[in-house]
Design brief:
Distance between the termini of chain A: 19 Å
Oligomer: heterotrimer
Strand content of chain B: 25-35%
Shape of chain A: globular
Number of strands of chain A: 4
Largest sheet of chain A: 2 strands, antiparallel
Distance between the termini of chain B: 69 Å
Order of helices and strands of chain A: HHHEEHHEEHH
Order of helices and strands of chain B: HHEEEHHEEEEEEE
Strand order of the largest sheet of chain B: 5-6-7-8
Mean pLDDT of chain A: 89
Chains: A mainly alpha, B alpha+beta, C mainly alpha
Shape of chain B: elongated
Number of helices of chain A: 7
Low-confidence stretches of chain B: none
Structural class of chain A: mainly alpha
Number of strands of chain B: 10
Mean pLDDT of chain B: 89
């Protein structure tokens, strides 16, 4: 048993040091309390719904979210709009469909099964409209950035005047948290930019938090199910481990007495 | 004393086995369930069909959930024929009124109930459909009349959104 | 297995067994005499079997939904994560399972190094193990390419370009591997095919690995030969089965923690960006389990020699049974080797660490020293130690007290030597 504890600790230490060495570049991101962190972490529904509003009204004019469908908005563990609300949301978008019987493409109101409508036809069009920089697809953006939610949250609030000695080209902005500090996206948020229907005051900080929460859900839509199942699985494994441990003691006692 | 000991040991082993079996079951289920239709398949919307250009006596085939759906605009003679069939002649008795709420329009899954082939239009002994795979004959109401198929061709859930559009599903 | 006489009790069993001796095999496996002093380091063989089965089962189910096409691979992975029933669970088990597999295999290998399990008469077991390890690396690398993220693409580019170091034919081989002039769709589809094939090769080799093990039987922490069966052994079932099971469950708790709570921590964020042949990620590193070899590769300033050094670092292990000249197996009785063993462990960990760091300045220097020491350990220290080291006397049998003034220590040593001769 003693040697087992040693093995166990050794494994944990190695794994922790590994994960630390991965996060080689440590940046001090802005901190906030994320409701979805921790063993029982869940999304804040209000934040998700507000975050969706920020995404649609602000981000979606440049950033696509091509792996999400409107039906996701009403699914469990997400913003949990009612199905009726989600249908209304979907129908407010024009979706290109076709070809019809005459072989022509046509537009129709969106349905729940449709994917989020993209702002540009393709990457080239997106680049052409944004000075050569492709606004990245936001479906898995949180997972595609080293700092995750903290990075996105900080970036949205990290716009500042450039320090002395740094000159910026036309269409380039200074951001404290951007890799290399130069970003081609202008500060997207300003106080009161959107009007929340639930009465929450739309400060930049609030909007950053809401939209980041929304992006976290978009990247990891089964996070709540994962946390719940994980807790059950680990409790189960511990119970079984205890049972097996005592069974093992019992079985091995047969020969311990012989020896 | 010895007996009691055995019992306790048995209980411990039984409990371990039982708890272990539960875990195996819990692990096996996701591996099986992953083959069931996924969320995107389940969410697939209904199909809307524009039938404004169809003349009586014409059949079109549309795809719905990966299967063909026959939509036939029946002639008055065909409707009369479908209604005249006596129930005791049928293998799977079903009135034509039950199958075609608007008698002019017959909407049904174009899948033979024998083994899933697509029957041919306007063929067979009953002037309806004929399945080339194993020789099932259907009448003009899509009911099985002769051959190995056990039941009539299935009528899916559908509705007329307006006079010209049928929504299937 | 030939020493085994087993007759099934039932008539049907006998009839069947005469035609296909499966029952004899099952009986051999359950009764297999195992040293009773095996410690928990020995449970990783069972854990590795579990890892392999897990990877095969989750891999098969993922392959039902994955699309091996450059335009669709990334999307199909997202489809698995979002829409497929329990798809996220299966994928996270598979992705973290690879790391768990390597974690276990490294413990398994270092256990072997500590207790001298590779020495006569177990050389074949050891060499099969090295082949399995090589195949594992190939499978893991190709599997990492399949999501078709940025790290997939650039990892594939960098690793396949290693072959271009071969003189004359190198370029041709790389083009052949790619099926084109860069990593692209043909590369992806063939990697998928091979990624699907290799685990079954590993499975076959695992059978051979265990077969070869069952001929001489297990080594043990004391490292002396034991009589089988005897009071030093226990039948595999239920004693070892339950002990392996207990260790496996502890291992699964760690595994579950990764899958459910930090499923992406061992991966790289850039792999959630779809592959882009025009942009290389700023900081490109392989998965953690390949880092030590990556460090060796980068520590050599010559392209060809770097590749040679990296390959030698693995292949040198196959020669280990002959490089280690000591007759004593277990490091418990080799005080000097024990110290060098731990230095080697530290050396490999350091290599892994610098492998994750940029190849410049101090990191490069450390990588070079660590690389040199790695080869020094196997090529110089081990052969030399075998001749010069003063070992501790071995006990007579594993039931005797291992240390402390036992009167039969002297005879034990004589006996051990005669056994080895």
């Amino acid at each position: 048993m003693k040697i087992f504890c040693k093995i166990f600790t050794a494994i944990i230490i190695v794994l922790i040091s590994l994960s630390n060495s991965y996060a080689a570049e440590k940046v001090n991101y802005l901190k906030t309390n994320w409701s979805f962190k921790g063993l029982f972490g869940k999304f804040d529904r209000g934040a998700l719904q507000r975050g969706y509003q920020v995404y649609t009204e602000v981000c979606s004019s440049c950033h696509s979210m091509k792996y999400l469908s409107y039906r996701n908005l009403s699914e469990q563990g997400g913003p949990e709009f009612t199905v009726a609300q989600a249908k209304v949301i979907a129908a407010s978008f024009e979706v290109k469909d076709g070809p019809n019987a005459d072989g022509e493409m046509f537009t129709r109101p969106g349905k729940l099964s449709d994917k989020f409508v993209m702002p540009y036809e393709n990457i080239k069009a997106a680049q052409a409209a944004n000075g050569g920089a492709y606004p990245p697809d936001m479906s898995v953006l949180v997972k595609a950035r080293g700092g995750g939610v903290d990075y996105i949250y900080s970036l949205l609030q990290g716009y500042d005047d450039p320090p002395v000695g740094i000159t910026l080209d036309e269409g380039v902005y200074y951001n404290k948290y951007m890799y290399g500090n130069k970003i081609k996206m202008a500060s997207p948020l300003s106080d009161g930019l959107v009007e929340y229907s639930d009465g929450t005051i739309a400060t930049v900080e609030q909007m950053s938090k809401d939209v980041t929460t929304f992006l976290m859900w978009a990247a990891e839509p089964h996070l709540e199910a994962r946390h719940q199942m994980g807790f059950k699985a680990i409790v189960y494994l511990i119970i079984l481990t205890i049972l097996v441990y005592f069974s093992m003691k019992k079985i091995w006692s047969r020969i311990e007495t012989e020896v | 004393m010895a007996e009691k000991k055995t019992k306790r040991r048995d209980f411990l082993f039984t409990a371990t086995y039982a708890v272990g079996a539960v875990g195996v079951g819990a692990v096996v289920w996701p591996m099986i369930d992953q083959m069931n239709p996924d969320a995107s398949v389940k969410a697939l919307a209904s199909t809307e069909v524009d039938v404004s250009s169809m003349d009586p006596g014409k059949t079109i085939t549309v795809l719905w959930r990966g299967k063909p759906v026959f939509i036939r605009r029946r002639t008055q003679e065909e409707i009369a024929e479908a209604k005249s069939v006596k129930m005791d002649e049928l293998k799977d008795p079903e009135k034509d009124e039950e199958r075609a709420k608007n008698p002019e329009w017959l909407v049904m899954l174009g899948v033979c109930t024998h083994l899933g082939c697509v029957p041919l239009d306007q063929k067979g002994d009953y002037n309806g459909w004929f399945c080339p795979c194993h020789g099932s004959h259907y009448d003009i109401s899509g009911r099985i009349r002769k051959g190995p198929a056990p039941t009539n061709m299935e009528v899916p859930k559908y509705e007329f959104v307006n006079a010209n559009t049928i929504k299937i599903g | 297995m030939s020493d085994h006489n087993y007759t099934p009790e039932t008539k049907i069993g006998k009839w069947f067994n005469d035609r296909l001796p499966l029952l004899t095999l099952a009986n051999h496996l359950t009764d297999y005499p195992t040293p009773k002093n095996l410690n928990y380091w020995w449970t990783f063989g069972g854990i590795l079997t579990f890892c392999l089965i897990t990877q095969i089962v989750t891999g098969l189910t993922l392959a039902m939904h994955y699309i091996a096409h450059a335009d669709m691979a990334f999307e199909s992975v997202e489809h698995i994560m979002r829409d497929v029933n329990y798809g996220w669970l299966i994928r996270y088990i598979h992705a973290n399972g690879a790391s768990m597999f390597f974690l276990a295999v490294y413990i398994h290998i270092f256990r072997s190094l500590f207790y001298g399990s590779y020495k006569s008469p177990r050389e074949i077991i050891w060499i099969i193990g090295i082949i399995i390890y090589l195949l594992m690396m190939a499978a893991a690398f190709m599997g990492y390419v399949l999501p078709w993220g940025q790290m997939s693409f650039w990892g594939a580019t960098v690793i396949t370009n290693l072959f271009s170091a071969i003189p004359l034919v190198g370029e041709g081989i790389v083009t052949w591997l790619w099926g084109g002039y860069s990593v692209d769709n043909p590369t992806l589809t063939r990697f998928f095919t091979l990624h699907y094939l290799i685990p079954f090769l590993i499975l076959g080799l695992v059978v051979l690995h265990i077969w070869a093990l069952h001929v001489p039987g297990n080594n043990n922490p004391v490292g002396i030969d034991i009589k089988k069966p005897s009071k030093d052994t226990v039948p595999f079932h239920p004693y070892i089965v339950i002990k392996d099971g207990f260790a496996l469950l502890m291992f699964m708790i760690v595994f579950a923690f990764f899958v459910f709570y930090t499923p992406n921590i061992l991966g790289h964020a850039d792999n959630y960006i779809e592959a882009d042949p025009l942009v290389t990620p700023a900081h490109i590193v392989p998965e953690w389990y390949l880092l030590p070899f990556y460090a060796i590769l980068r520590s050599v300033p010559d392209k060809l020699l770097g590749v040679v050094a990296m390959l030698s670092a693995i292949l040198i292990l196959a020669a280990l049974p002959w490089l280690d000249t000591s007759k004593i197996r277990s490091a418990v009785f080799r005080p000097l080797y024990r110290q060098f063993y731990w230095i080697l462990v530290a050396d490999v960990l350091i290599l892994g660490y610098v492998g994750a760091m940029p190849a410049e300045g101090l990191y490069l220097l450390i990588a070079r020293v660590a690389t040199a020491y790695y080869f020094l350990h196997f090529l110089v220290i081990l052969p030399f130690l075998g001749f010069r080291e003063k070992t501790i006397p071995l006990p007579l049998s594993i039931t005797d007290p291992v240390l402390g003034g036992s009167p039969n220590f002297a005879t034990a040593k004589n006996k051990e030597e005669s056994v080895i001769k």
